[in-house]
Amino acid sequence: MQDGVMQAWLESSHLAGGNMAYVEELFEVYLDDPTAVGDEWRHFFDQLPSDDGRADTKLSTIREQFREAAKNKFKQAGTTVAAAPDQKQVKVLQLINAYRFRGHQHANLDPLDLWKQPTVPDLTLEHHELSKDDYDKEFNVGSLAVGKDTMKLGDIHKTLNQIYCGSIGAEYMHIVSTREKRWIQQRLEGVLGRPEFSQDLQQRILKELVAADGLEKYLGSKFPGAKRFSLEGGDSLVPMLKALIHRAGEQGSKEVVIGMAHRGRLNVLVNVLGKKPADLFDEFAGKHAVNKGSGDVKYHMGFSSDFATKGGDVHLALAFNPSHLEIVNPVVMGSVRARMDRLGDSTGSKVLPITIHGDAAIAGQGIVQETFNMSKTRAFQVGGSIRIVINNQVGFTTSKREDSRSTQYCTDIAKMVQAPIFHVNADDPEAVVFVTQLALDYRNTFQRDVMIDLVCYRRHGHNEADEPSATQPLMYAKVKQHPVPREVYAERLLSNGVIKDKDLEQLVSDYRDLLDKGEIVVDEFREMKSHSSDWKPFIDNEWNVEYDAKISLEQVKALGKAASTVPDSHALHSRVGKVYDERLKMAAGDKPADWGFAETLAYATLVDQGVHIRLTGQDSGRGTFFHRHAVLHNQEDASTYMPLNNIRDGQGKIEIYDSVLSEAAVVAFEYGYATAEPKALVMWEAQFGDFVNGAQVVIDQFLSSGEQKWGRLCGLTLLLPHGYEGQGPEHSSARLERFLQLSADHNWSVCVPTTPAQVFHMIRRQHLRPVRRPLIVMTPKSLLRHPLAVSELEELTTGVFQNAIAEVDELTPKKVKRVVFCSGKVYYDLLQERRKREQEDVAIVRIEQLYPFPAEEVAEILKDYQHVKDFVWCQEEPQNQGAWYSSQHNFWAVIPKGAELTYAGRAASAAPAVGYLTEHNKQQSQLVDDALTIK
């Protein structure tokens, strides 16, 4: 405790012995919530020890300091003791604090009035040794932000109930930051939980509720029984979203990206984004046909438009979403980050992410936790997001809370990042709009996530053909009797004289007329301008499109030197220093290029051309296998230096981040980024290729089929370490077979490069070729330092990526009796063993791109072997894995007529690899021998 502060308080006699019980109780209030006491007391308590660890502050050490201070004061003052303050004053402050902590548990949140929470003792007067007999007594209100210093207890109690137990239930006391808590308190308490809205705004809200209700009724009558995942019961989502967009535009946002699942999606498309109802009706009638591709169901589709606000037009983008409901959330965040980077927006002030969740899904799907965990990290932060839950209190048919989650609220997951949570009754649209404004202002002020729990109901079953009363009889007995939100709010405005009956009738009639005409119903809709990067150069291009890949030897040497030069002041680890010394020799042409140098050089050539590169992964800065070392850590002060960002002035930017320990959310984020920014080279690297199976949903639903279903182009590159080095299951296979099974419609390329020159050309091709489709790379582990896996600088300056590579040794074609096809690391095992045997009758052909299969290139290579009848596919993976089952039809198609194709590799296995090194070596030796031995 600071001496000056202590002395000042001693002199004011606040710490006199008779006041100690009061001070201790006040201190306990402060420990629960520093904002609950007045500024002077908070300042005093802030000076106490253990300010950074308040759990320790409750120990007797602090109490002893109070008592010692009181004794000293008593000695100084003789027999005079200050009068003890009213002990009930502290109880009143505790009552105020209790409402801030737990008032939400008594809030009127459920429109159906079925959700009854148990009585919370902390919210009773008796719990705080108060009673209605104290109602007329005047008390200091502490930090209660109601514009008064003192109030009667009766008024305090009434005010607290109005603020914290009305249509809004606020959870924010879990937030550590006192500043953030005070900010929320002032906003909530300053308007007593309910602001005054103008009649114009009230009429606009009603019009939006009429639209939300009108569309659902129209669809229900026009297309009875068709799935539409109705918004009915949660109609307030429409005025909520429109209020969000209006306020975001007024505060400077230029783009809003929305992610949501099925519930209410059609309503949002028509009544918020401005999709033509006629187009939606055509989809219902089955008349709509995409130009190419498979298409998708109407409640998965995305949409883009512009929306007029007082701050200018805001570009809206609703992300496409599969039925894996929550997986769209990191996709949205990635799209937002790309737009932020394009606009030079580091805080999120210009781009707003909005994600809309179901109550069962947000509590049930782990991708939500992953996305929250990313929200404040360097690589993935977007300045906070607005997260809305359409809480219809039932997931599919599960309504019992103990069956759907283990927490009180479905939104409790948000507390892991200290996001404030505002529960709001969806039948009170003014409260909905108020918390919407509050949430956005909080997000824009603190750049943090915020959650809105829109507590509503589902008027129909999970879909419109479902019968919900079979499993929720009590709920749906209530639903059938309950008026729709439009009727609830209209009655309120009618009773307040804001509208007349004829006004409501006119709104309903006008909206239906617009639907009959199929016209756009959103007043704020504007024809879309060019808000995104230009995708035109990449549309309708196929793999064989020409591109300029020329680079001179002088450029390669200069860029190699620049990418390998580190300031003397940056102290490197000895092993890293050796890597960079070797790279300088490679740059000069004195030593062949290894894998790490060639990859780094590829990046250097691209940033030199102004290209933006983004690479994330769990150990991507140095590379899991200690080969990349693109981010250099100073051994003296832990600062970092990236040579690739110091090639030249005005170069492109390269970002390399060690990511959070996630596959699903990170790959989804990078997919979202790549779909929003075609001018960047976006890459994700698995720690081991095996771990990509943690992102299988992203691969299945987005990466492999996004173009086919939705017309979404994406140039994301996946770097997946793959190869059998005896490291056992989960450290050998990137599950090549799964990618090949998903290969169709030229949806992506799957490559297995075997030389540094090949990886150099492959990386450059991925960006320079005007095609934006994913690249799946089986990258090596042992080849990173293999003595044969090297390339001369001249190989980097001539040619392009070779989809297939012919025999490299000088064999006489006529002597060849067998041709072995292979991909990846096993090539070097085959080559070394053949050379060891001095065998000249087996040629080895490498397939470096397995999809799209390079039939023409392979056919050209096989011209010298038309006499051969014995062809073998050799792989390291088990027979039921790898490329054999998925690609052998391609091998059959290119071998000479009448030739035989056999398999050399491991036997079929449920596991991707054995776990014992001796067994691994035995298998590896056997498969090489099988491939080379002609029987």
Automatic annotation (TrEMBL):
Pfam families: 2-oxogl_dehyd_N (PF16078), E1_dh (PF00676), OxoGdeHyase_C (PF16870), Transket_pyr (PF02779). GO terms for molecular function: oxoglutarate dehydrogenase (succinyl-transferring) activity; thiamine pyrophosphate binding. Its cofactor is thiamine diphosphate. Its EC number is 1.2.4.2. Residues 593-786 form the Transketolase-like pyrimidine-binding domain. It is an enzyme of class 1 (oxidoreductase). The keyword Oxidoreductase applies. Coiled coil: none annotated. GO terms for cellular component: cytosol; oxoglutarate dehydrogenase complex. GO terms for biological process: tricarboxylic acid cycle. Keywords: Oxidoreductase, Thiamine pyrophosphate. Belongs to the alpha-ketoglutarate dehydrogenase family. E1 component of the 2-oxoglutarate dehydrogenase (OGDH) complex which catalyzes the decarboxylation of 2-oxoglutarate, the first step in the conversion of 2-oxoglutarate to succinyl-CoA and CO(2). PANTHER family: 2-OXOADIPATE DEHYDROGENASE COMPLEX COMPONENT E1, 2-OXOGLUTARATE DEHYDROGENASE. This is 2-oxoglutarate dehydrogenase E1 component. It comes from Pseudidiomarina aestuarii. The lineage of its organism: Bacteria, Pseudomonadati, Pseudomonadota, Gammaproteobacteria, Alteromonadales.
